[in-house]
Automatic annotation (TrEMBL):
Annotated source species: Lactobacillus porci
Main location: cytoplasm
Parts of the chain that traverse the membrane: none
Localization (cell): Cytoplasm
Pfam families hit by this protein: CSD (PF00313)
Annotated CSD domain residues: 1-66
Any one GO molecular function term: nucleic acid binding
Keywords for this protein: Cytoplasm
Protein's name in the database: Cold shock domain-containing protein
C-alpha cells in the first residue's frame, strides 16, 4: 500500500485529494474509496494508506484507510 497526506477534502462534494509520500503527486479520492467505519470523510493533514487504480480521468485512490502510527 502507498502512504500519503490528505491535502483537501470537501464533505459536501464528497471528494478530495491525497498527496503521495513517494512522488509528491496529488491523487483524486471519492468518499466511496474510504474503508473506515462510520461517516465517510477525511480531513486535511490526516495520514492515510491507500492503493491507486485507473479511474475515468487517470489514477485515483482506492481502499483508503487512516494510517495507524
Amino acid at each position: 500500500m502507498r502512504t500519503g497526506v490528505v491535502k483537501q477534502f470537501e464533505p459536501k462534494a464528497s471528494f478530495g485529494f491525497i498527496e503521495d509520500d513517494q512522488n509528491h503527486k496529488s491523487y483524486f479520492v471519492f468518499y466511496t474509496a474510504i474503508k473506515e467505519e462510520g461517516y465517510k470523510r477525511l480531513e486535511a493533514g490526516q495520514r492515510v494508506r491507500y492503493q491507486l487504480a485507473q479511474g475515468k480521468n487517470g489514477l485515483q485512490c482506492i481502499n483508503v484507510y487512516l494510517a495507524k502510527d
